[in-house]
Amino acid sequence: FPSRLPKVGTTIFTVMSALAAEHQAINLGQGFPDFPCDRKLIADVNEAMLADHNQYPPMIGVPNLRHGIANKIQQLYGHQYNPDSEITITAGGTQGILTAILACVSPGDEVVIIEPAYDSYRPSIELAGGKVIAVSLEATRDSDGKVASYQIPWEALSKAIHANTRLLIINTPHNPTGMVWQKSDLDRLADLLKNTSTLVLSDEVYKHMVYDGARHHSVASHPELAARSFLISSFGKTYHVTGWKVGYVAAPAPMSAEFRKVHQFNVFTVNTPMQYGLATYLSDASHYLNLPAFYQAKRDFFRAGLEKTTFKLLPTPGTYFQCVDYTALTIPEAKLSEAEFCKWLTTEVGVAAIPISAFYEKPTESGVIRFCFAKQEQTLTSALDRLQKL
Ligand code: GLN
User: Fold this and answer.
1) Are residues 205 and 116 in the same domain?
2) In this protein, which residues make up the domain named Aminotransferase class I/classII large (predicted)?
Protein backbone atom coordinates (compact mmCIF):
# COMPACT_ATOMS: atom_id res chain seq x y z
CA PHE A 1 0.00 0.00 0.00
CA PRO A 2 1.61 3.33 -0.99
CA SER A 3 2.60 5.18 2.16
CA ARG A 4 2.26 8.89 2.77
CA LEU A 5 4.81 8.53 5.57
CA PRO A 6 7.23 5.92 4.28
CA LYS A 7 9.90 6.57 6.91
CA VAL A 8 7.56 6.57 9.88
CA GLY A 9 7.07 3.55 12.14
CA THR A 10 5.25 3.44 15.48
CA THR A 11 6.04 6.36 17.79
CA ILE A 12 8.88 5.60 20.24
CA PHE A 13 6.62 6.38 23.23
CA THR A 14 4.19 3.62 22.29
CA VAL A 15 7.01 1.20 21.45
CA MET A 16 8.79 1.72 24.78
CA SER A 17 5.60 1.60 26.86
CA ALA A 18 4.65 -1.70 25.18
CA LEU A 19 8.13 -3.12 25.79
CA ALA A 20 8.01 -1.97 29.43
CA ALA A 21 4.62 -3.65 29.91
CA GLU A 22 5.79 -6.86 28.23
CA HIS A 23 8.83 -7.10 30.53
CA GLN A 24 7.17 -5.63 33.63
CA ALA A 25 9.79 -2.90 33.66
CA ILE A 26 9.39 0.33 35.60
CA ASN A 27 8.24 2.71 32.91
CA LEU A 28 10.28 5.92 33.04
CA GLY A 29 10.00 6.17 29.25
CA GLN A 30 6.81 7.77 27.94
CA GLY A 31 6.02 10.97 29.82
CA PHE A 32 3.04 10.49 32.13
CA PRO A 33 2.44 10.57 35.89
CA ASP A 34 1.89 7.27 37.74
CA PHE A 35 0.00 9.02 40.55
CA PRO A 36 -3.67 10.03 40.61
CA CYS A 37 -5.04 13.44 39.76
CA ASP A 38 -6.90 15.54 42.33
CA ARG A 39 -10.23 13.93 43.35
CA LYS A 40 -11.80 17.39 43.15
CA LEU A 41 -11.07 17.47 39.40
CA ILE A 42 -12.79 14.11 38.96
CA ALA A 43 -15.73 15.35 41.04
CA ASP A 44 -15.95 18.43 38.81
CA VAL A 45 -16.14 16.26 35.69
CA ASN A 46 -18.60 13.94 37.39
CA GLU A 47 -20.79 16.86 38.24
CA ALA A 48 -20.71 18.02 34.62
CA MET A 49 -21.84 14.59 33.45
CA LEU A 50 -24.63 14.45 36.05
CA ALA A 51 -25.70 17.93 34.95
CA ASP A 52 -26.16 16.37 31.49
CA HIS A 53 -23.32 18.09 29.75
CA ASN A 54 -22.94 15.06 27.56
CA GLN A 55 -23.83 16.21 24.03
CA TYR A 56 -21.65 17.99 21.48
CA PRO A 57 -20.09 21.14 22.89
CA PRO A 58 -19.53 24.18 20.67
CA MET A 59 -17.03 23.31 17.93
CA ILE A 60 -14.42 25.72 19.33
CA GLY A 61 -14.85 24.55 22.95
CA VAL A 62 -17.00 25.27 26.01
CA PRO A 63 -17.24 29.06 26.64
CA ASN A 64 -16.34 28.90 30.35
CA LEU A 65 -13.19 26.99 29.62
CA ARG A 66 -12.10 29.37 26.84
CA HIS A 67 -12.79 32.36 29.09
CA GLY A 68 -10.89 30.75 31.98
CA ILE A 69 -7.90 30.11 29.72
CA ALA A 70 -7.94 33.69 28.38
CA ASN A 71 -7.96 35.05 31.96
CA LYS A 72 -5.17 32.77 33.03
CA ILE A 73 -2.97 33.73 30.07
CA GLN A 74 -3.70 37.39 30.74
CA GLN A 75 -2.69 37.06 34.38
CA LEU A 76 0.44 35.01 33.79
CA TYR A 77 1.77 36.44 30.53
CA GLY A 78 -0.03 39.74 30.07
CA HIS A 79 -1.58 39.05 26.67
CA GLN A 80 -5.34 39.27 26.21
CA TYR A 81 -6.60 36.65 23.78
CA ASN A 82 -10.21 36.98 22.75
CA PRO A 83 -11.77 33.79 24.14
CA ASP A 84 -14.32 33.63 21.32
CA SER A 85 -12.13 34.26 18.30
CA GLU A 86 -8.64 33.31 19.48
CA ILE A 87 -8.82 30.22 21.69
CA THR A 88 -9.79 26.73 20.52
CA ILE A 89 -10.01 23.63 22.71
CA THR A 90 -8.18 20.65 21.20
CA ALA A 91 -7.89 16.92 21.84
CA GLY A 92 -4.51 17.41 23.49
CA GLY A 93 -1.35 19.17 22.39
CA THR A 94 -0.55 16.76 19.56
CA GLN A 95 -3.86 17.38 17.78
CA GLY A 96 -3.33 21.11 18.17
CA ILE A 97 0.11 20.78 16.57
CA LEU A 98 -1.11 18.74 13.59
CA THR A 99 -4.13 20.96 13.05
CA ALA A 100 -2.09 24.18 13.21
CA ILE A 101 0.38 22.77 10.70
CA LEU A 102 -2.35 21.58 8.32
CA ALA A 103 -3.99 24.99 8.61
CA CYS A 104 -0.95 27.00 7.52
CA VAL A 105 1.51 24.82 5.63
CA SER A 106 0.98 24.24 1.89
CA PRO A 107 2.89 21.80 -0.32
CA GLY A 108 6.46 23.00 -0.78
CA ASP A 109 6.40 25.41 2.18
CA GLU A 110 9.50 25.39 4.35
CA VAL A 111 9.10 24.68 8.06
CA VAL A 112 12.05 25.00 10.43
CA ILE A 113 12.30 22.70 13.43
CA ILE A 114 14.98 22.45 16.12
CA GLU A 115 16.25 18.96 16.88
CA PRO A 116 16.07 17.05 19.13
CA ALA A 117 12.38 17.62 18.31
CA TYR A 118 9.19 15.98 19.55
CA ASP A 119 8.47 13.15 17.14
CA SER A 120 5.11 14.41 15.82
CA TYR A 121 6.45 17.62 14.26
CA ARG A 122 8.15 16.17 11.21
CA PRO A 123 5.41 13.74 10.09
CA SER A 124 2.79 16.46 10.63
CA ILE A 125 4.73 18.80 8.33
CA GLU A 126 5.20 16.03 5.78
CA LEU A 127 1.47 15.23 5.75
CA ALA A 128 0.85 18.87 4.86
CA GLY A 129 3.39 18.55 2.02
CA GLY A 130 5.80 20.93 3.75
CA LYS A 131 9.56 20.72 3.58
CA VAL A 132 11.30 20.19 6.92
CA ILE A 133 14.43 22.23 7.54
CA ALA A 134 16.04 20.90 10.72
CA VAL A 135 18.67 22.69 12.78
CA SER A 136 20.13 21.25 15.99
CA LEU A 137 20.43 22.59 19.50
CA GLU A 138 24.07 23.33 20.26
CA ALA A 139 25.58 21.41 23.13
CA THR A 140 28.17 23.02 25.36
CA ARG A 141 30.54 20.45 26.82
CA ASP A 142 32.41 19.95 30.10
CA SER A 143 36.15 19.31 30.17
CA ASP A 144 35.36 15.56 30.07
CA GLY A 145 33.53 16.04 26.75
CA LYS A 146 30.07 15.41 28.21
CA VAL A 147 27.15 17.70 27.43
CA ALA A 148 26.88 20.52 29.98
CA SER A 149 23.93 22.42 28.52
CA TYR A 150 21.97 23.07 25.37
CA GLN A 151 21.87 26.38 23.54
CA ILE A 152 19.59 27.77 20.86
CA PRO A 153 21.50 27.53 17.56
CA TRP A 154 21.07 31.17 16.56
CA GLU A 155 23.47 31.10 13.67
CA ALA A 156 21.94 28.00 12.12
CA LEU A 157 18.45 29.44 12.68
CA SER A 158 19.27 32.70 10.96
CA LYS A 159 20.65 30.74 7.99
CA ALA A 160 17.64 28.43 7.88
CA ILE A 161 14.94 31.11 8.07
CA HIS A 162 14.17 33.06 4.89
CA ALA A 163 11.67 35.81 4.18
CA ASN A 164 9.18 33.20 3.02
CA THR A 165 9.82 30.42 5.54
CA ARG A 166 6.26 29.50 6.42
CA LEU A 167 6.63 28.28 9.98
CA LEU A 168 9.14 27.85 12.80
CA ILE A 169 8.39 25.37 15.57
CA ILE A 170 9.81 26.09 19.00
CA ASN A 171 9.30 24.17 22.24
CA THR A 172 9.92 25.57 25.71
CA PRO A 173 10.38 23.99 28.24
CA HIS A 174 11.92 21.57 25.80
CA ASN A 175 11.16 17.89 25.42
CA PRO A 176 13.51 15.97 25.76
CA THR A 177 16.37 18.20 27.05
CA GLY A 178 14.46 20.29 29.59
CA MET A 179 16.02 23.45 28.17
CA VAL A 180 14.00 26.65 28.71
CA TRP A 181 13.96 29.81 26.63
CA GLN A 182 14.80 33.11 28.36
CA LYS A 183 13.15 36.46 27.73
CA SER A 184 16.25 37.56 25.80
CA ASP A 185 15.78 34.51 23.54
CA LEU A 186 12.25 35.60 22.67
CA ASP A 187 13.55 39.10 21.92
CA ARG A 188 16.23 37.69 19.69
CA LEU A 189 13.71 35.47 17.89
CA ALA A 190 11.40 38.43 17.29
CA ASP A 191 14.34 40.31 15.76
CA LEU A 192 15.23 37.38 13.57
CA LEU A 193 11.67 37.15 12.24
CA LYS A 194 11.17 40.89 11.72
CA ASN A 195 11.36 41.00 7.94
CA THR A 196 9.79 37.63 7.33
CA SER A 197 6.24 36.37 7.04
CA THR A 198 7.20 33.36 9.16
CA LEU A 199 4.64 32.10 11.64
CA VAL A 200 5.63 30.46 14.93
CA LEU A 201 4.21 27.34 16.52
CA SER A 202 5.21 27.50 20.16
CA ASP A 203 4.78 24.20 21.98
CA GLU A 204 4.53 25.16 25.66
CA VAL A 205 2.87 22.07 27.10
CA TYR A 206 5.41 21.91 29.96
CA LYS A 207 5.01 25.60 30.86
CA HIS A 208 4.24 24.93 34.54
CA MET A 209 7.37 22.84 35.00
CA VAL A 210 10.20 25.34 35.32
CA TYR A 211 12.50 25.07 38.34
CA ASP A 212 14.92 26.86 40.67
CA GLY A 213 12.79 29.97 40.84
CA ALA A 214 12.99 30.60 37.08
CA ARG A 215 9.98 31.67 35.03
CA HIS A 216 8.43 30.34 31.88
CA HIS A 217 8.62 32.83 29.03
CA SER A 218 5.66 32.36 26.73
CA VAL A 219 5.26 33.81 23.25
CA ALA A 220 2.11 35.26 24.84
CA SER A 221 4.36 37.50 26.94
CA HIS A 222 5.91 38.95 23.79
CA PRO A 223 3.46 41.04 21.70
CA GLU A 224 5.44 40.79 18.45
CA LEU A 225 5.68 37.02 18.71
CA ALA A 226 2.11 36.59 19.97
CA ALA A 227 0.94 38.32 16.79
CA ARG A 228 2.38 35.53 14.63
CA SER A 229 2.17 32.48 16.91
CA PHE A 230 0.07 29.42 17.51
CA LEU A 231 0.49 28.81 21.24
CA ILE A 232 0.01 25.12 22.06
CA SER A 233 -0.93 23.93 25.53
CA SER A 234 -2.08 20.76 27.24
CA PHE A 235 -4.12 20.11 30.40
CA GLY A 236 -2.88 16.53 30.61
CA LYS A 237 0.59 17.61 31.68
CA THR A 238 -0.53 20.24 34.17
CA TYR A 239 -3.35 18.32 35.87
CA HIS A 240 -1.87 14.78 35.79
CA VAL A 241 -4.49 13.55 33.30
CA THR A 242 -2.56 12.75 30.10
CA GLY A 243 -5.26 10.25 29.10
CA TRP A 244 -7.97 12.89 28.93
CA LYS A 245 -6.41 14.41 25.84
CA VAL A 246 -7.59 17.97 26.30
CA GLY A 247 -5.52 21.02 25.42
CA TYR A 248 -5.88 24.28 23.57
CA VAL A 249 -4.43 26.48 20.87
CA ALA A 250 -4.36 30.25 21.22
CA ALA A 251 -3.61 32.38 18.15
CA PRO A 252 -4.59 35.73 16.62
CA ALA A 253 -8.12 35.68 15.15
CA PRO A 254 -7.16 35.24 11.46
CA MET A 255 -4.87 32.31 12.36
CA SER A 256 -7.49 30.82 14.69
CA ALA A 257 -10.12 31.08 11.94
CA GLU A 258 -7.97 28.96 9.62
CA PHE A 259 -7.14 26.62 12.48
CA ARG A 260 -10.84 26.05 13.13
CA LYS A 261 -11.55 25.24 9.48
CA VAL A 262 -9.30 22.22 9.85
CA HIS A 263 -10.23 21.45 13.45
CA GLN A 264 -13.96 21.09 12.63
CA PHE A 265 -13.24 18.32 10.12
CA ASN A 266 -10.53 16.72 12.15
CA VAL A 267 -12.02 16.06 15.60
CA PHE A 268 -15.02 18.45 15.22
CA THR A 269 -15.27 18.85 19.00
CA VAL A 270 -13.50 17.72 22.16
CA ASN A 271 -15.30 15.74 24.87
CA THR A 272 -17.82 17.87 26.72
CA PRO A 273 -17.76 16.84 30.42
CA MET A 274 -13.98 17.09 30.67
CA GLN A 275 -14.17 20.64 29.34
CA TYR A 276 -16.80 21.63 31.93
CA GLY A 277 -14.85 19.93 34.71
CA LEU A 278 -11.60 21.64 33.72
CA ALA A 279 -13.38 24.99 33.47
CA THR A 280 -14.53 24.67 37.10
CA TYR A 281 -11.17 23.43 38.31
CA LEU A 282 -9.17 26.08 36.44
CA SER A 283 -10.67 28.91 38.48
CA ASP A 284 -8.47 27.86 41.41
CA ALA A 285 -4.88 28.76 40.49
CA SER A 286 -3.30 26.93 43.43
CA HIS A 287 -2.72 23.67 41.56
CA TYR A 288 -0.58 25.08 38.78
CA LEU A 289 1.10 27.62 41.07
CA ASN A 290 2.30 24.72 43.24
CA LEU A 291 3.38 22.57 40.33
CA PRO A 292 6.99 23.83 40.03
CA ALA A 293 7.68 23.02 43.71
CA PHE A 294 5.89 19.67 43.39
CA TYR A 295 7.97 18.56 40.40
CA GLN A 296 11.19 20.18 41.58
CA ALA A 297 11.07 17.94 44.67
CA LYS A 298 10.72 14.89 42.41
CA ARG A 299 13.51 16.10 40.14
CA ASP A 300 15.85 16.65 43.09
CA PHE A 301 15.00 13.29 44.65
CA PHE A 302 15.62 11.48 41.38
CA ARG A 303 18.83 13.38 40.66
CA ALA A 304 20.18 12.68 44.15
CA GLY A 305 19.65 8.96 43.52
CA LEU A 306 21.26 9.13 40.10
CA GLU A 307 24.29 10.87 41.60
CA LYS A 308 25.08 7.50 43.19
CA THR A 309 25.35 5.89 39.75
CA THR A 310 27.92 6.39 36.99
CA PHE A 311 25.33 7.97 34.72
CA LYS A 312 26.29 11.56 33.98
CA LEU A 313 23.38 13.89 34.72
CA LEU A 314 22.43 16.65 32.34
CA PRO A 315 20.80 19.81 33.73
CA THR A 316 17.02 19.86 34.05
CA PRO A 317 15.80 23.46 34.26
CA GLY A 318 12.33 22.43 33.08
CA THR A 319 9.91 19.61 32.04
CA TYR A 320 9.50 16.31 33.89
CA PHE A 321 12.37 14.67 32.01
CA GLN A 322 15.86 13.92 33.23
CA CYS A 323 18.49 13.22 30.56
CA VAL A 324 21.58 11.19 31.38
CA ASP A 325 24.71 10.23 29.49
CA TYR A 326 25.37 6.47 29.85
CA THR A 327 28.68 6.31 28.03
CA ALA A 328 30.70 6.54 31.25
CA LEU A 329 29.22 3.28 32.60
CA THR A 330 31.84 0.59 32.86
CA ILE A 331 29.68 -2.21 31.43
CA PRO A 332 29.94 -3.41 27.81
CA GLU A 333 26.41 -2.15 27.10
CA ALA A 334 27.70 1.42 27.49
CA LYS A 335 28.87 1.03 23.89
CA LEU A 336 25.38 0.30 22.55
CA SER A 337 23.43 2.79 20.47
CA GLU A 338 20.86 4.79 22.43
CA ALA A 339 17.97 2.73 21.04
CA GLU A 340 19.72 -0.57 21.83
CA PHE A 341 20.74 0.67 25.26
CA CYS A 342 17.13 1.62 26.08
CA LYS A 343 15.90 -1.76 24.88
CA TRP A 344 18.49 -3.52 27.02
CA LEU A 345 17.76 -1.30 30.03
CA THR A 346 14.06 -2.14 29.73
CA THR A 347 14.31 -5.87 29.16
CA GLU A 348 17.36 -6.73 31.31
CA VAL A 349 17.49 -4.07 34.02
CA GLY A 350 13.76 -3.42 34.22
CA VAL A 351 13.75 0.35 33.73
CA ALA A 352 12.36 1.87 30.52
CA ALA A 353 13.80 5.08 29.04
CA ILE A 354 13.62 6.94 25.74
CA PRO A 355 16.61 7.29 23.37
CA ILE A 356 17.32 10.90 22.40
CA SER A 357 18.15 9.67 18.88
CA ALA A 358 14.37 9.19 18.41
CA PHE A 359 14.06 12.98 18.37
CA TYR A 360 16.29 13.31 15.30
CA GLU A 361 15.67 12.44 11.67
CA LYS A 362 19.27 11.56 10.82
CA PRO A 363 20.94 8.98 13.05
CA THR A 364 22.49 11.07 15.83
CA GLU A 365 24.14 9.32 18.74
CA SER A 366 25.07 11.41 21.74
CA GLY A 367 24.97 8.60 24.32
CA VAL A 368 22.05 10.28 26.07
CA ILE A 369 18.70 8.83 27.18
CA ARG A 370 15.64 10.38 28.82
CA PHE A 371 13.89 9.33 32.03
CA CYS A 372 10.51 10.70 33.13
CA PHE A 373 10.42 11.56 36.84
CA ALA A 374 6.67 12.29 37.05
CA LYS A 375 6.38 9.28 39.35
CA GLN A 376 5.60 8.41 42.95
CA GLU A 377 8.65 8.39 45.20
CA GLN A 378 8.32 4.64 45.58
CA THR A 379 8.51 4.15 41.78
CA LEU A 380 11.58 6.37 41.55
CA THR A 381 13.19 4.52 44.46
CA SER A 382 12.63 1.12 42.82
CA ALA A 383 14.04 2.40 39.52
CA LEU A 384 17.04 3.94 41.30
CA ASP A 385 17.71 0.63 43.11
CA ARG A 386 18.03 -1.04 39.74
CA LEU A 387 20.06 1.73 38.13
CA GLN A 388 22.45 1.92 41.10
CA LYS A 389 23.44 -1.71 40.45
CA LEU A 390 24.86 -0.91 37.01
N1 GLN B 1 4.88 13.81 25.20
C2 GLN B 1 5.08 12.53 25.79
C3 GLN B 1 6.54 12.18 25.90
O4 GLN B 1 7.38 12.83 25.33
C5 GLN B 1 4.44 11.40 25.06
C6 GLN B 1 3.25 11.69 24.24
C7 GLN B 1 2.89 10.48 23.43
O8 GLN B 1 3.14 9.38 23.84
N9 GLN B 1 2.37 10.72 22.29
O10 GLN B 1 6.85 11.21 26.52
Assistant:
1) yes
2) 25-387
